[in-house]
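Forum: Protein Structure Q&A
Topic: Joint prediction for protein chains with partners

I've read a bunch of threads here and the consensus seems to be that you should model interacting components together rather than docking separate models afterwards. I'd like to see that in practice. Below is the full input, 368 residues plus whatever partners are listed. Could one of the regulars post the assembled result?
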Amino acid sequence: MEARVENGGSCEVGKSGWGKSLPVPSIQEIMRSDSQSVPQRYIHENKDRPIISEDLADSPEIPVIDFSFLAKGNEDEVQKLHLACKDWGFFQVINHGVKEEILEKMKAAVAAFFELPFQEKKKYAKAENEIEGYGQNFVVSEHQKLDWSDMIYLFTLPSQNRNFKFWPLSLSGFKEALEEYSREMQKIAEELQANFSVLMGLKRDGLKRLQGGELKQGIRMNYYPICSRPDLVLGISPHSDGTSFTLLLQDDDVTGLQIKHNEAWVPVKPIPNSLVVNIGDATEIQSNGMYKSIEHRAIINEKKPRISIATFMFPDDEQEIGPVEAMIDDQNHPKLYRNIKYVDYVREKFSRKMEGKAHTQFAKLSTR
Ligand code: OGA
Ligand code: NI
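Posted by a regular:
Agreed with the consensus. Here's the joint model:
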């Protein structure tokens, strides 16, 4: 059965049925009227609060991968990629070949969207029983702490998954910027996927086959308003991505993303024009845990709002995802995850609040 979106009268179908989330206020709007307040629902418990430090000089750097070397099949770079995925689950990609102009246009389009009057943005509001559109996801209870961000999530590829009633088409240049950006991300994603395949002992097209053809794509655009008490709130709660992998375009000069590494929160200092890539849960499962989808979160800046653009690459809904044969060896690497239909996995993820990696238990085999 097709769940019906409630924000418009048109009959486009798009992609549907991944989950639902309770409606929440726009924190950007709350801050517009009173930038000093920190509403109770956003104040995290002591143990979850971030430590806000201006001094990032001593923190470790996540690995940097030169995409132009990967694309040429450079063995050393492939090995670097392997270690980055194994030891960090996160890396920054430089020399990816996407023109700066395309990245800038995309950032400008997203900034322009969030600058629209609230009444205008609300036209693209997500329905409670959908995850696409403007609003927030992963809100499952009136009591849960809320994240200090607004977002708009759109399915972008394959193009028949586009649900234009959620696209701000009246915003000049938005559609063109998003389509062009989406195409560029797909090209990078295909090369990365081919490399992951080889590193998992498959042919270059191995994961493509096991993920049900071309990678699917959805783009989540996040807006993090300023907060007078960034030490009390989180921009996005700790979570891992339920994707194959994710490509993140960050603001060049506001650091916000932090990843869990050796039990500590490590900031990802932006390299201008680079993309941050992280391994998602589907790759963790397919690699039988060799690569881990790492917990990450975003913190808030007191003085500058921040925008980020997350391109989620994921398998086909109907595809069964499980550890690939070459990654299982009964003696040393027993199978750690069960095979699971991808749509069942995402439904489990979207039925919960963001809570680190708790949702990944769903795919784990019990080990005794
Ligand atoms: C996400 C995410 C981090 C960021 O959208 O899944 O982790 O820095 N975003 O915005
Ligand atoms: Ni994420």
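The radius of gyration is 20 Å.
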